[in-house]
Amino acid sequence: MRVLIVNSTDISGGAARAAYRLHQSLLMKNVDSTMLVQNKMSDDFSVVGPISKFDRAFNKLRPTLDSLPLKRYKDKSATLFSTSWVFSGNLVNQINKLNPDIVHLHWINSGMLRLEDLSKIKSKIVWSLHDMWMFTGGCHYDDDCGLYKDNCGNCPVLNSRFSHDLSRVILKRKSRAFANVSSLTVIGVSKWLQGCAEQSQLLKNRTVLTLPNPIDTTLFRGHDKLLSRRLWGLPSNKKLILFGAIGSTNDPRKGFSELIDTLKNIDTRNVAFVVFGATRPLNPPVFDCEVIYVGSLHDDVSLISLYCSVDVMVVPSRQEAFGQTASESMACGTPVVSFRHTGLLDIVDHKVNGYLAAPSDTEDLAAGIEWVLNNESYSELCIEARKKVVSKFDSKVVAEKYIEVYRGLLNE
Length: 412
Hints:
13 strands; Rossmann fold; 7-stranded parallel sheet; 2 domains; 16% strand; 12 helices; alpha/beta
C-alpha cells in the first residue's frame, strides 16, 4: 500500500504537524508513506518538496496570489479566507508520477492546489479536514454564521452585503469540482467537524468519517515539574496557567480576549500566567499576576517541557477543529480547561481530566481554572488526562484506524 500525504508544509502549523505525525505513524506501521509539500521545512528524506528552483520561488508567491481576489473586500475580518484559484503547477504531475494507491489531502491552501485540478488526480482521494474550509465559501472558520449550510453569500467574514459575492462563487466552484472527483472520502478530525460537514450544502450527501489527530505518547509524556521550570526559568513557588497557540494573541478565534476577562475573575495572588506562540506585545494587557511570554516554539522538546512546567492549560478558543494543544498538554499529564463546544468536546471530559465551561462564559472558565488548581485530587486529574490521550489519540491507535480506511477503499 502506497500512501501520499499532501499538505502545504511539513512541520509549520497545526495541520502540518498533525499530517506529519500521521505520516510518521504510518511509516512505523510499515506503510509505504511519502509526504508531498509546497514548502519543505524539515530535512526528512521521506518528505518531497518542490523540484525546481522556479517551483520553490513561485511557491513563495502562491499565498499572495491566492489572496488577490480579497483585495476588493476592504473591510474583511481577520478570519482566514482562501480562494484556491491559483494554477497547481507541477503538483498534480508530481502526485500522478509518484503513483500512490491513496492520496491523502490535508491542508492544501496558500495557493497549493486549485479546486478544478482535483479531478486530475488519478488515485483514490482521502481528505482530512483540519478546519471548515472544504465545505464553506472560502472561510476556514465560519464565526458561527452557518451560511455554508445553504449557499453562502452576504459573507460576514468578507463583510459583504451582496448575495452573489466571492463566497458564493467559490461554493459553486467547489460543488462542480467535487462532482468531478470519482473517489473522495472525507474525514473530520472531530465529531463537531464531522457534524458541520454533514450539514453543509457541499457534503450533506457524502459519508463523512471522524478520526482524530495522532500524537506520539512515548514522546509527549510527563517529566519532573521543578526541573522543567528550571529549564524555562519559571517561578517554582507559584501555580502556573498556560495559554498558547500559533498567533495566540493575534488570532481572535484563539480566545485571548476572553482569557483576559477570565483572569480578572480568579485569585491571582499565588499565580503566574505563561503564554507561548507570541512575544510580549508593545502594549500588553494589564494583568494582576506575573505574565511570562516565551515566544514561538518550533520543536516538540520545547513544547513538552513547557507543558510539564505548568499546572493547567487553558484553551479558550471560540471554534476549534480538534484542539491539538489540549491533547498535547494532557499527554504530558497537565489538565485542560476549555469552553464546552466544538472539537474540544472530544478531548476534555468534564471534571475527569479537566473542566468544560459554558461557551463564552468567562466566569465559568475562571471557576474551572480555580477548580483544577485547588483540586484535592489534582494528581488523579493528571493521571486521567494522560490516560485519555493514550487510549484515544496515540499514534499507533490512530494510524491503525487510518490503515483500515485505506484498505477499505482499495478493496472496493
